[in-house]
Design a protein that fits this description.
D-Amino Acid Oxidase, Chain A, domain 2, alpha/beta, FAD/NAD(P)-binding domain, 9-stranded mixed sheet, disordered N terminus, about 425 residues
């Protein structure tokens, strides 16, 4: 394997790179994976698309990012161990101290609440902007001597008993004992491995934007389940600001994207009433939308290949744990490789099988929970909605069930 070298970007027309691990994907999970393996003493190649847009600290001053993540304790611990958490702009990170989930049954609406005090933790989650998180990871990568970044378009992936090889459009070749697919829901790596998927669209889009509020949010995250308007979540941002994540049916999503943020704010008042006071769009205004679907790959490993993040699973965002599943993937993969027998390399089939087993239960549980809740709360049948609202109230009154739900939300077992 190649010797350690400082973080650099390779774009030359013809080259061959040899490393222990090749990570495909330059998003959050890809960067975290590269950093984790480098910290473990392995040489890493990080393959990203050509001419990937750069992110720097100055971008954080250009308003508040509409795309945010609710990171749990697994994500926090992993980022801290990689020295990336301290690289975040802390002034732009908000803690979630309480969560309130509400149905839409009028005076009979079910309500379920969680709080950090009851969970005996300092925070239930941390709200971090995508831009802030990527900037912190980019900073950490600059100090990762074992990571080499390569920009280019991959055209082929093959593996044999000893290694995997990725061929690039420009003629370059990347060889590694292990290829990690961290390239999203439409994963090229997954497709190259002929791993089939079960796919189902929710007929919804996630509409995201930010608002200022007249009243303090006190670190409370709100979520409303409705039959006709989807699932609405308002997450706390630093100061008197909140981030909207609206899982809206397609027709409503089209309408929301045509409306101004001020008009969306008026719609939100019907849900939050006077809890947050008057809502006003954060300047500069930014509204984004992305399609929502359930993607279940038939496997998350193949010869010399492991999938992580959205390449390994895509779930409904109602619980805010899609990104957290990815962080847990990375943590378990790193553990499987760190504890492997001395005679096994990091792409050994038995090592990858342990990773797959280690992620099976957690992933299936999150897929089942988010899919079931999304489908159940989308029903307009009054008897079903009465049962669901009653269920929320019942769970709220049973401490043992609440503790179980909180433990999974935090990422603990």
């Amino acid at each position: 394997m190649n010797t350690s070298s400082s973080f650099s970007v390779t774009t030359c027309s013809t080259f061959a790179v040899q490393s222990d691990v090749c990570v495909v994907g330059n998003g959050v999970i890809g960067k975290v994976t590269a950093l984790g393996f480098a910290q473990a003493g392995l040489n890493v190649t990080l393959l990203s698309p050509a001419a990937a847009p750069s992110r720097d600290a100055s971008a954080l001053t250009q308003g508040w990012d509409a795309r945010v993540y609710a990171l749990n304790h697994v994500a926090h611990a992993l980022l801290s161990s990689l020295k990336a958490w301290d690289a975040l702009d802390a002034a732009r990170v908000a803690t979630v101290d309480e969560m309130v989930v509400q149905g839409d049954g009028g005076e009979h609406s079910g309500v379920l609440g969680f709080d950090a005090y009851g969970a005996q933790v300092g925070a239930l989650a941390w709200i971090v902007e995508d831009r802030n998180l990527n900037a912190a990871l980019d900073t950490a990568l600059k100090f990762a001597p074992r990571v080499r970044s390569v920009q280019g378009r991959a055209t082929a992936l093959c593996s044999n008993g000893d290694a995997a090889a990725i061929t690039l459009e420009n003629g370059g070749t990347l060889r590694a004992a292990l290829v990690v697919g961290a390239d999203g829901g439409q994963s090229w790596v997954r497709n190259q491995c002929d791993i089939g998927i079960d796919y189902r669209s929710y007929g919804q889009r996630g509409v995201v934007t930010n608002f200022e509020c007249d009243k303090l949010h006190h670190g409370v995250a709100y979520q409303w389940f409705t039959a006709t308007e989807g699932i609405v979540a308002l997450l706390p941002l630093p100061g008197q600001r909140v981030s909207l994540v609206w899982s809206a049916p397609e027709a409503l999503a089209e309408t929301l994207m045509r409306e101004s943020p001020a008009q969306i704010a008026v719609r939100l008042q019907a849900f939050c009433g006077e809890q947050l006071g008057l809502l006003r769009p954060v300047q500069p205004e930014e509204v984004k939308a992305f399609p929502l679907a359930l993607i279940r790959p038939h496997a998350i490993v193949a010869p010399r290949v492991a999938l992580v993040g959205d390449a390994a699973h895509v779930v409904h965002p109602l619980a805010g744990h899609g990104m957290n599943l990815g962080f847990a993937d990375v943590a378990v993969l790193l553990e499987a490789i760190a504890t492997r027998e001395a005679h096994r390399d990091c792409g050994d089939a038995r090592v990858l099988a342990r990773y797959a087993r280690g992620r099976k239960e957690d992933t299936l549980l999150m897929q089942f929970a988010t899919d079931s809740l999304a489908r159940l709360f989308a029903t307009e049948l009054a008897p079903v909605r009465m049962v669901l609202n009653a269920g929320l109230n019942l769970i709220d009154r049973i401490p043992v069930i609440k503790r179980y739900l909180i433990s999974h939300a935090l990422g603990s077992k």
